[in-house]
Amino acid sequence: MRTTRSRLSAVAATALLASLAACGNSADGSSDSDAQAPVDGPISGAITVWTWDGAPGADAMDALAAGFEKETGVKVDSKVVSRDDYTAQVQLALNSGENIDVLGVQPSQFATEVEPKMRPVSDYADQLAGGLDGYSPLTIEQSKKLYGGDDIYSVPFGSTGSAVCFYNADILDKAGVQPPATWDDVKALTEALQQKEPGVLTLVKPSGSDSWFEDEFVLTMVGQTDPGFFDSVRYDDGAWNTDSYVSALQRYGQLYADGTLQRSALDLSYTDAMDAFNTGKAAIVCNGSWEAGMLKKSFRQENGIKASEIGVIPVPSDDAADRSARSFLDITWGIPKAADNASAAAAFISYATQGDGVDLWADNLGFVPAKADWSLDPSVLGDDKLAQQGFATIQDLINNPSSDRNNLSSLSAEVGKYVEEVAQGRMDAQDAADKGQKDLESGLYN
Fold first, then answer.
1. Among candidates 153, 192, 231, which has minimal Cα distance to 401?
2. In a designed cystine with 405, which of 131, 267, 309, 326 is the match (CB 3.0 to 4.6 A)?
């Protein structure tokens, strides 16, 4: 499988190997003198688990630790690190020999950076309750893409998707309209709001200083008519400025030019967009599936969200049958070669990703678990039928993506600026696509 835009650059790989050598380790990340702890030994003792904040979160990690200790007697020391500091702290810990039994591995480049320090999952797959068959086929395939081959060095944990849209059912009811499926429906909503709820924006999303989401949004639109577009760019040296991309970008610009969407919403940051929706000043907010927690009534009450009910729709399209979202693994877990207690580590990974532990973190709705045939415990959303339908929509979009959401983050931020210029009517769609192509070819944003 070709992964020309997802593998670590030769320069970065050389630097990594040099740092490992400087710490007295061999090129494969293992110590020259220390034997690896057995994976199939007794499940006892204690383990140290490293993750970053929100993956799946400190409260969820505490619940997992307590549940696993109750089930096995193994004590879990959970260390949750700020996402911004995680990469640096993990590299320092691994290179200094600090014990980590289970490591949360961030997807994309981070996976290849730590790969030399990680055990192949084949070493402990038979210690997982369902083996690799215990994960959905899509997540295993995506795991292989992280490492560029058939060998994987961490197991799938949970996935997110983008873009999806959340709507305030109260506002739509007052406007007398149904949840929109097409852009014509959205225009009708805009006109109804102007008459019945003046001052309420139709649709908001992260823009302005968070231009990366402008890219996410248009890539979702491209996927409606050209599934696989982003996969072609990401893995197979495909072109950015294709006819399908230009067409989607043109359509996006038209939505603002003809008044379907309001240009006044284009300067809203991530926080501003969410605040507008949460305070009832916007009927719809489009974001990632990671915002699905607001489907829970308890979450809305705790966070002061002014909506008695919230539903979910895919990003609208010209043909309602064209549903699209990109999705990818957001968290994976693995065992470092230097782990002190690999047997208990494997048992903990099995518990948290395939066993009873899954429901201890999945109820926050931030991720769709990678566990094969997983479904949400009905008690999480109670009798809220709209929320149940909404999460089912999210799960369906994530499990059936148009492309992987294996982003080139720097490129996304740059291209998003061009997308916003098109929406503002200040740049032609073809010129914006050509600029994106030039940035892609430059290698500066990969």
1. 231
2. 326
